[in-house]
Amino acid sequence: MRNSHRTVAILIVFYFFLCATIQAAGYDPLVVPKAAKVETVDLTVHDADRKRDIPIRIYLPAAKGKPVPAPVVLFSHGLGGSRAGAGYLGEHWAGRGYVVVCLQHPGSDEAVWKNEPWAQRMAAMKRAASAENFLLRVRDVPVVLDQLEAWNREKGHRLAGRLDLTRVGMAGHSFGAVTTQAVSGQAIPLGGQPFTDSRIRAALALSPSSPRRGDPATAFGSVKIPWMLMTGTHDTAPIGDQTAESRRRVYPALPATIEKYELVLFNAEHSAFSARALPGDRQPRNPNHHRAIKALSTAFWDAHLRNNAEARAWLHGPGAKSVLEAKDQWQLNAIPRPK
């Protein structure tokens, strides 16, 4: 028994030594190659069945010669947002070699508030945070994936041969996180239908939401893919009835059988995950928040869409904490990989 315990201890020490060695060897998720020019393409996906147009913005990594298919990350904006709202992430992820597709969801996008008088904008936003718009959003995701598959096969299309749709990640902020959770394994008691899309291999929820009713363990207990959650100690919003505390109920409710990660940024408000501050913000913007978000999310995609062992070791070792500040909180659940 003593020998067994000693062997386990040696393996643990070796694992952390390996993580530190890999970090020292130079894996850095914040580095973008100088030649990594990113092209931005705006397109529209038409859903004939629903008579609905879904604007998308695509961040394409640089391609020299014959394009090599790249992993794809979809991004769903928050309530009142647009396909342009996640530019800092789209640029960085694409610079790292991902095709980033930012969806715009009509009915809960910027059109909800743009033409409203200032005093009526909040009421318009609250109306848009509806079950109807939730259903529209979650159905937008498979429609966009279907169209990406068609364009990837279409000769002469600028996306032809550019997409590796066997490696798809899904991300979103706020209402976009709700959308991401629904298509990535959360059980939603709405209409008795599953929304999970099996093409999605990993999910990133910025400002995640726990269910308003029922047990979180029931809602998240059937998730089968890696999830990364990011929130802040002041991550509340005037719409959605979520608090900084309720957002943290998601992580413990996820199964112990998946790799899961949670980052809690100190003093980060709801807008910390967006490109700019929002009216009513009280905390000063912290530049290191975006740095940490980009670093940890990129390593997450590298580890789970590219099966990059260096990225996984960086996430599971001292690398992740090296981009955080002292009062930020970081935890993870690692699953041993078969040899």
Helices and strands in order:
Layout: H1 2-25, E1 39-47, E2 52-60, E3 70-76, H2 87-95, E4 99-103, H3 111-114, H4 121-128, H5 131-153, E5 163-173, H6 175-183, E6 200-206, H7 216-220, E7 227-234, H8 244-247, H9 250-253, E8 260-269, H10 287-305, H11 309-316, H12 318-322, E9 329-333
CATH H-tier superfamily: Alpha/Beta hydrolase fold, catalytic domain
Domain module count:
1
Give me the count of strands.
Answer: 9
Largest sheet: 9 strands, mixed
CATH class: Alpha Beta
Principal-axes geometry comes out as globular
Mean pLDDT: 91
Which structural category do the helix and sheet elements fall into? alpha/beta
Corresponding CATH architecture:
3-Layer(aba) Sandwich
Oligomeric organization of the protein chains: single chain
Main β-sheet, spatial strand arrangement:
1-2-4-3-5-6-7-8-9
Q: Radius of gyration in whole Å, from Cα?
A: 20 Å
Give helix % range: 25-40%
| Binned strand content | 15-25%
Number of helices: 12
Q: SSE order in H/E notation? A: HEEEHEHHHEHEHEHHEHHHE
Structure, described:
The chain has 339 residues and is α/β, with parallel strands linked by helices. The protein has a single domain, classed as Rossmann fold (3-Layer(aba) Sandwich), CATH 3.40.50.1820. It has twelve helices and nine strands. It has a nine-stranded mixed sheet with strand order 1-2-4-3-5-6-7-8-9, sandwiched between helices. The N terminus is likely disordered.
